[in-house]
Every structure is written in C-alpha cells, then in structure tokens.
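Hello forum,

I keep getting stuck at the same step: I have a sequence, I want structure tokens, and every attempt I make locally crashes halfway through. Rather than fight my setup again tonight, could one of you with a working pipeline run this one for me? It's a single chain of 141 residues.
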Amino acid sequence: MNRSRFAVICLIALQPLALMAQNKCDAEADAAQSKIIREFSVNPPSKHDQAAYLAWSQNLNVALATVGKRHEECIRANRPAISPAEAAKTDACLAAVRRRGDELANRYRGRTLTFQEQTTQRAEQQTLQDEYMACSKRVNQ
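Reply #2:
Ran it on my machine without issues. Output:
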C-alpha cells in the first residue's frame, strides 16, 4: 500500500518536469492550433448555409494543415545531422532488408500458393516490414 502511494506521489511530482521538457516545436504547434481553433470558433457560419459552412471548414482545414507543415519543418530543422558512418550503416541495413524482400518475392513468384505457403509468405513479409521500419527509425531519431 505504501509503495503504490509513493509511486502516485512521485508521478504527480514529476508531471511538471515532463511538461517543461516538452519539445519547443510541439509547444508552438499546440499554441498555433489552439489560436486557430479559437479564431474560427468565434463566428462560425450556420450549418444550414452549406456554401458558407463548406468555405469556412475548408479555410479551417487549410490553416490547420499549415500549422502541421510548420511543425514538421521545425522538427526537421531541429533534428541533429546524421553522421556519414550512421548513414552508411542505415543504407546497409535497408539494402539487406530489400535484398531479402527480393529473395522472398522470387521464392513465391509464378505459382499458386497453398494456404500454408501464403501464411508463411505473409509472416515473412511482416517480419521484413518490421525490420525495414527498425532500420528507418534509427535515421529519424
């Protein structure tokens, strides 16, 4: 009982620290999104006037998409540069996964597969997709 209370107290105490550590780009995007939503919700058109409501909602979506693009650009600009060694390592990882994918495709090409073969092929494809994502994830971190 004391451990669970201690854990809850620690979580509550650490919550402000997590908020302070929030990414600058995320904070700017959240603020811009909130501002746009506030501005657009001040005087929305009637839902019965379809043309006005459609124009209003399209403008809202364009504004929110712009915030999303700025957010992605901010994240991209603040991401540390990848060293040539890390880039070569990632390229080698991706090439190996692609090569095994080609081998898998060649193994099952040109014939009708049994249910077991289809199941095996799909499992191997899923494994390759997971490995490809793992190689790609290293680059994006």
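Residues 40 and 63 are 10 Å apart (CA to CA). If your local run keeps crashing, start a new thread with the error log.
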